[in-house]
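Data availability (excerpt). The following record was deposited with the supplementary files.
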Amino acid sequence: MQRSQSVSNSSQDSQPTPFKAKNLWTRVILGGTAVFVCIASYWSYQTIRNLLLENLQDKAFLEVQQGANEIDRWIGDHEAELAAIANNPTFRTMDWDTIEPYLRLEEKRLPDFIYLGMTDADMLLYTTDTPDRNGQIDLSDRKHIQDAMAGINSLSDPLLARSLDGANIVVFAIPTFSGEGTAENPLGEPIGAVNAVIGIDKVKEVVNSLQYGQDSYAFALNSKGEAIVHPNAELMSTIEKPAPSLLDYDDPGLANVAQRLMNQEEGLDLFNIDGEKQYVAYVPLTEADWSVALVIPRSNIEGQLRPLDLIALVVVGLTGTMLVVL
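Predicted structure:
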């Protein structure tokens, strides 16, 4: 009888009690909830992180876009001023003795220009700066003059002025028309151009002001992918003293950026530059065949997400601890 009672007691001990079963289900529910919360938190973290990263990237791109817009406005404002001169009846006479006094008055009104001048139909230069050389400087080799004589508002790449002892300048060439219109050419044929010489200090000022944190730097390229403005002076280029084009630069990342700009593309992407991944925001100008780019160390953008990454790490750690305890 004792043996029968012992067997009965052993059978009862081996069966789970209601309390143990309830405790097991509690652990399963808590563990499942913890896993679900962890997965949902990770998904939310990734979504929020991507949105914040996109916002930071947009902010960096906007910095460059605003710089490019400022240079475009600078170019457009000066083109409008010069177009008014080119359309003036006095300038349309194409008689230098008549035009010179008018241009001297305009120089006082428009002090940003170093000097104003006229290019005649033979592409010979007349200026208020070097009267002894008027009609002797042939500009037929200058693309901006060729474009102006084809009826197109034009701006040169930076060059060394022949009549300013090699000063670094850009030249506006705005066509003037005969006024004898036809159905095909309402303004008539181009008969000359207003020449306006201006320094590139404004372009340098705008480009050098573009920054996005420590060790970021900006540069501007001309129509050939050569640097107009760059922190490395050896890469600065003029028509007479061209520096290597960034298209052929030995850094594939910079060469890739230059090629995209030559293709009139814009955006912000990661490139391998100077041996490390860096963001580059790049924008072509609309008023000239130039472009602007800003190189940003990756940490300057993604480093702002570290507090969010730390919170995510803490959540994962707490979830892991809860699962171990359960």
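Summary of structural features: The first helix runs from residue 2 to 14.
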